[in-house]
Every structure is written in C-alpha cells, then in structure tokens.
Amino acid sequence: MSLSEDLVWRGLIKDKSFDKIQWLDKPGVFYWGVDCSSDSLTIGNLAPLLMARRFAESGWRAVLLVGGATSLIGDPGGKDAERPLLPRETIEANVEAIKKQVANLFAGQDFIPADNYEWFKDLNYLEFLRDIGKHFSVTELVQRDFIAERIGEGGSGISYAEFSYSLIQGYDFWQLYKRHNATLQIGGSDQWGNMLSGVGLIRKKEAAEAHALSMPLVVNKATGKKFGKSESGAIWLDAAKTSPTQFYQFWINCDDEDAIDYLKVFTLLPRERISAIAAKHQKDPAKRLAQTELAKEVTRLVHGQEKVDFAEQVTKYLTGELPVADANDEALSEVRQALPAVKVQPGSAVIDVIVQTGLAASNSEARRLLQSKAVYVNGEQFDQPHLESSAFKNGRLILRRGKAFKDSALVELV
User: What is the predicted pLDDT for the residue at 231?
Assistant: First the structure.
C-alpha cells in the first residue's frame, strides 16, 4: 500500500496545499515540530509524531524540530488566553526531555534533529522585519481563526508576541528548506494557518514550491471534545506524570466507537492486522478486544514491553481476574491510583462504604444498589449489610457497582 493510500485509510488527511494526494508517494524531506511548554509530550502530540514516523518508514527524510525559541513565545493556537512566559532555563530543560521522547518514538528510524533556537538566538530584529515581516499581510493574519477569536467581541486579546508566532513558524520552514531541503511540513489541523506561513514565505523568498499537510484533531466521538485528557487531566508520555499502568488503563477504557479509529492513528499496526482486530471486535464487543490490543500497542510504543506486562497484571487485579489479595506492594500502589481507595473498620456498613468510595451519591442510591443485587465484592454478588473481616483477604477487597469494571473501588482495613 502506498503512503497516500495508507494515510487516507487511517483518516489522517485534513488539509493539504497540493492537489493530488499521490504527490506524497514521491519521498522528499519533511518536518514536524513541537513546542516545549512542558517537559513531556502528551498523547495529543503522539498522533502527529506517529504520522511523521509513517512518512519516515515510507522513505521520506524526517526533520524533527523542538521549539527552543518558539516555546519562549508560546503558540496561541487553540488557546483563548495569553500563555504565561516560561524562563529560558525551564525551556532548556523541557527541550532536553522532549528530545529524548522523540528519539524513543523514532527508534530505528533515521531523522535529523533540529532546534529553532539555533537560528533565532542571534537574529537581528530589524533584519527580521525587513526580510520576513515584509512578506506578511496583517489583513490575512487577523483573519486566521485563532487570532480572530482572540481579538473579536468577547475575546481576551492577543499580545504582539503571540500575534507574531505565525511569522516565526514560517521562518522555521524557510530555514529548514535552506538547510535540509525540506519541502513539506506536517502537523495537526490547529496548526494549518501557521504551516501556510512557511509555504508562502518559501515561494516568495526562493521562488520554490513547498507544501503543508494537516491531520484532523482527534476527538472523542461520544463527547465531541478534543482527545487527550482524562478526568484527572492530560495523558502524558512521561512515566513520572502518567504512570505506564495509568497510560494503559486510559486506552483500555476508551469507547467502542473510538477504539478502531485509535488503532489506526496511535499504533503502527498494518492495515491487515487492524482489519482483523476490527472484525473480531464487532462480533463480540463485550470482550473489548480492540481496546486491549490498543492499550498493548500504544503502551509498548511509549514505555516498552516490560511495562505492558506489568500493566496487564495490574489490570487483572482491577477486573477481578486475579485476587487483589495477591498483589505485591508495587502493583497495589498502581491499584490505589487507578481506583478510588478507602480504609475502613471491620464491620463497616456497606451502604456507608459505597457512598464513601463514590460508587453512589447518597445512602438511598447505595441502598437501592444493594437491594437490587448490583453490589459485588471481589467479583461475587454481595447483599450483606456489613463488611465483616471475613470479606477481606490480606486486608483488602474490590468493591464494584454493577458489571462495569470501571465502577470499582479498593477497600482496605485500617
């Protein structure tokens, strides 16, 4: 399958500056860039980075840029208020951390690392205005969505620094064209306006052809919201921010209607394998085969097979496939992070504990759950009024509301 066919099948084409998609089947040099406003990428960054990996595996030469300079300004795209400025020292630390994550996800692939601080640190302001600013129309810039929303009625306003961000990104593309003959920039659709800045600048400065390609922003079909966050916040690639088990759990708990699409976007599995998973999944969605394969593959890509094995073991404790009484300290710590966890006295009223864990909002709701036999302890239906010592194994148990494993809590004896 050609690159263009694969990208279309995976749903990775949103906007393009060229007419025929087959243009992508003649490899050249492309670049993808990311700002370093944090010391870790998120799964929102993972989608275009894996798209870049697909290009590299199809013969394109990859230039992967970290924004040591642009991070000092902050990308206004997708933001309804001004970003706080970070100190240079913080940006430097963030850049080094993200370089390692990018290298990990491009393991085995040849790529050119780049940092735009290299060409911006000594740039003369008057030179920039004369050579770059002269080629941009303010009229066109203010019509771009992210700027129009900020300066329109009810908008929070925008500083000249963030307003100029699009020129800076355009300058990046021009520099990478001159240094590495990059003729294509890829990224998320929220970057489309910024990407076009580089396309136009190269044409004006070099009388040469350059192009941009954006992929759709990934959204949760059930909520319509931008994908990449859980109830507890962003899903990070850094294990210190989102543990590998929490990472695995995020993917395994995604909705049925999203799972196959996520396999296409967030894994490197070939079309034939994904199609086979989809066929089996549709026959029996309750087995959550697609979610399981998704969780395994994405966690393996980001954290390695050892972390996948550990996450699978913890998941068996969470679902009752293995008794939580057997969990060692490391696994138990992950269970406590994955589920609401409370400590109780032996003989505590079940209704009180159900409310305390958040599995019910009130005593009356907890009572109805108990009376309708919708309460489970360690995977078995439970209708007793109190949690006696005999219900606990090794001083702990899993309390569940209904049959959904996600509606569970860890209960431990004081």
Answer: 60
